[in-house]
């Protein structure tokens, strides 16, 4: 019995010793030029019972020179994000890493540099982010009148080049095989999105040609009292339409600018706030908080009204003249200072 107890104790001590050997501190320090906020974070996301949750491993306040020091303990490799309060970048950390980072927020991804133990693999990840941006820019610069088949071939060529680049990095850093596999899937999915974007853009440009200068395609919903409301009822004044949703951060960020415009031009222009892609009760509560004079809700069941204008991303703004002729179905955002030029 004594020998059995002794064996259990030895095994427990051995397990604890091995655990102490594998769990090591990871350090990430550095300097940020022109910081976006006063703190930085080392974090990752995991799916919980209520959805995706952000787990913060370490955080630190920047000093006056924009310097920081983050430290956490890891017992295995981990993919994480470095977040500066506005933008983020991916890292792959191993126990014992001691990495120094430098960046300038004016060109966030382009200026990230890593030094120290663990720097090489993370510089490779950073380089792939730049490759992605370069590819997007090269596609954006192509002639919009170029044949769709030729454009798709260009997208496939770029996707293959990215995947070949990832294969090269995988040979250098085989311990990150799961990361590289994910990057290749992202590249493939990105190529499909680019093709879909090309098709959408061409269809949308055609729709603009068809609708601008023509009579409004009717949109019907309900107002805050639950009464039926038609967009055509605003005939007699220029009308600015704002498509938004309760969950849309960029939509809500534009509200103060739109409110300011309503206060300035409200006697001459109708500002119609239309809630889409969200729940009616949540829309009503938030719309009342925003306090616009004219509010409408279009349910998902009435999606035909948004589909006819190809509203698949928000915020979106439209401008209609006093006679219900369409001026723009893709007007500038209120914050741009360009929207009022269409009144």
Lay out the secondary structure.
Elements: H1 2-22, E1 24-33, E2 39-48, E3 51-61, E4 67-74, E5 78-83, E6 88-93, E7 98-104, H2 108-111, E8 113-117, H3 119-140, H4 148-172, H5 177-211, E9 220-222, E10 228-230, E11 238-244, H6 249-265, E12 269-275, H7 280-290, E13 294-297, H8 304-307, E14 316-320, E15 326-328
Helix pairs in contact: 3-4, 4-5
CATH superfamily of one domain: Glutaredoxin
Order of strands, main sheet, comes to 13-12-11-14-15
Q: Output the helix-strand order.
A: HEEEEEEEHEHHHEEEHEHEHEE
Largest sheet: 5 strands, mixed
Q: Just name the CATH architecture of one domain.
A: 3-Layer(aba) Sandwich
Give a written overview of the molecule:
With 343 residues, this protein is α+β, with helices and mostly antiparallel strands. Among the domains are: 25-111, Immunoglobulin-like, CATH 2.60.40; 220-342, Glutaredoxin (3-Layer(aba) Sandwich). Helices cover 41% and strands 28% of the residues. The protein has helices at residues 2-22, 108-111, 119-140, 148-172, 177-211, 249-265, 280-290, 304-307; strands at 24-33, 39-48, 51-61, 67-74, 78-83, 88-93, 98-104, 113-117, 220-222, 228-230, 238-244, 269-275, 294-297, 316-320, 326-328. A 5-stranded mixed β-sheet has the order 13-12-11-14-15. A hairpin with a 4-residue loop joins strand 5 (78-83) and strand 6 (88-93). Helix 4 packs antiparallel against helix 5 (177-211). The longest helix is centred in the middle third of the chain and has 35 residues, at 177-211. Residues 1-21 have low confidence and may be disordered.
């Amino acid at each position: 019995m004594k020998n059995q107890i002794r064996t259990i104790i030895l095994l427990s001590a051995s397990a604890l010793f091995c655990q102490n050997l594998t769990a090591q501190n990871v350090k990430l320090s550095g300097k940020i030029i022109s910081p976006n906020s006063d703190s930085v974070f080392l974090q990752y996301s995991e799916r919980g019972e209520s959805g995706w949750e952000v787990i913060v491993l370490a955080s630190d306040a920047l000093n006056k020179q924009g310097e920081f020091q983050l430290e956490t303990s890891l017992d295995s490799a981990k993919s994480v994000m470095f977040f500066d309060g506005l933008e983020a970048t991916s890292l792959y950390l191993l126990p014992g890493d001691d990495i120094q980072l430098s960046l300038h927020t004016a060109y966030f991804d382009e200026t990230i540099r890593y030094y120290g133990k663990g720097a090489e693999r993370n510089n490779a990840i950073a380089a792939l982010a730049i490759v992605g941006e370069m590819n997007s820019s090269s596609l954006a610069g192509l002639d919009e009148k170029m044949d769709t088949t030729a454009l798709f071939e260009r997208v496939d060529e770029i996707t293959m080049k990215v995947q070949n680049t990832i294969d090269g990095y995988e040979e250098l850093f085989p311990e990150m095989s799961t990361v590289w596999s994910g990057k290749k899937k992202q590249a493939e999915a990105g190529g499909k999105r680019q093709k879909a974007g090309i098709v959408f853009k061409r269809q949308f440009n055609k729709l603009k040609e068809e609708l601008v200068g023509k009579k409004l395609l009717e949109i019907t919903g309900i107002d805050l009292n639950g009464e039926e409301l038609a967009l055509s009822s605003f005939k007699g004044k220029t009308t600015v339409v704002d498509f938004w949703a309760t969950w849309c951060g960029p939509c809500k960020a534009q509200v103060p600018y739109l409110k300011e415009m309503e206060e300035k031009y409200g006697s001459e222009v109708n500002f119609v706030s239309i809630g889409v892609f969200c729940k009616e009760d949540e829309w009503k509560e938030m719309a009342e908080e925003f306090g616009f004079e004219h509010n409408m809700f279009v349910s998902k069941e009435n999606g035909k009204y948004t589909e006819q204008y190809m509203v698949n991303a928000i915020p979106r703004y439209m401008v209609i003249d006093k006679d219900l002729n369409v001026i723009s179905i893709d007007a500038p955002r209120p914050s741009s200072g360009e929207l009022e030029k269409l009144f």
